[in-house]
Amino acid sequence: MLKILHREFIYLRYYFELQFTQIFWYWVLGIAIGSFISVFAKDGIHNLFRRMRNKKWGVLGIIPACMLGIASPLCMYGTIPIAASFARQGMREDWLAAFMMASILLNPQLIIYSAALGPVMLVIRIVSCFLCGLAAGLLIWFFYKDKTFFDFSGFEQHASHDTHPNLLIRYLLNVWRNLKATGLYFLFGILLSALFQRYVPQDLMTKLFAGNKAWGVLMAATIGVPLYACGGGTIPLLRQWLWDGMSYGSAAAFMITGPATKITNLGAVKIIMGLRRFIIYLVFTLAFAFITGLLVNLVY
């Protein structure tokens, strides 16, 4: 019995170390760049969006809103309070929806993490998240042009943690917060991928997620809801699943529903939308992920 356990430990350690060495530097680079943007560029990005409210761009404003949402380093809990401040300053709701959707799905740090999945998957993630933000903005513009969709009452913008007068110390403190926020998820994701690699047959993953099958995309979109915990933590899993035969379309669907329906964040989303619009949000997210996955599989 001890020999079996020892053998399994050696196998798992090998898979863990293999995954760790392949992904570790993407994680480190993502934290370094993400913290730099958070400390030195976050206010500039948000001020650019804030200044948009006086522009006469109409619905076309959702395009720069999506770009600035992706460039913003905030997570969902950071995005909602800043969006509340934008709303109080008179920002259009279609622009807000595009900014928030894009920001929730992607940020500079997650872009660096996603580079570990390969250039094709990286491009798919960036393009699909941008288009999801556009779709959210267009839907708000079309169906809620003269009505209110969001209710930000009760949300105040949090004070910034990046206030130390010394810029280097401010940056290092941000890096430390990033390490604490993502480190355990990152290691847990690598451990899960090692367990998958050792104990889950490759043909099972191929049957579930491979090929241009709608079922695989639907499965990936669905499991993104309960399984997604942290962007950095899911990269090792996705990398292993892609290696085992998951289609690009299934991976794209997972990467949309995951961050958009992250369990720990859904409560905040429900507060600013109410029950009926919250259900609309969930249906939109799942439908967009499913359609995106199908289209990606047609191309690749």
Helix content: over 70%
DSSP strand tally = 0
Calculate the terminal CA-CA distance, rounded to whole Å.
Answer: 46 Å
Task: Kindly provide the radius of gyration, computed on alpha-carbon positions and rounded to a whole number of angstroms.
Answer: 20 Å
Shape category: globular
DSSP helix count?
Answer: 13
Q: Please tell me the overall pLDDT.
A: 83
pLDDT < 50 runs, ≥5 residues: none
Tally of discrete structural domains: 1
How would you sum up the major sheet? none
| Beta-strand share of residues | under 5%
Summing up helix and strand content along with how strands pair, one would put the structural category as mainly alpha
Would you list the SSEs in sequence order as H and E?
HHHHHHHHHHHHH
Layout of SSEs?
Layout (H helix, E strand, L loop, with lengths): L1 H39 L1 H10 L10 H10 L4 H13 L4 H13 L2 H7 L4 H25 L23 H33 L2 H8 L4 H14 L3 H14 L3 H13 L2 H37 L1
Helix pairs in contact: 1-6, 1-8, 2-3, 3-5, 3-7, 4-5, 5-7, 7-12, 7-13, 8-11, 10-12, 10-13, 11-12, 12-13
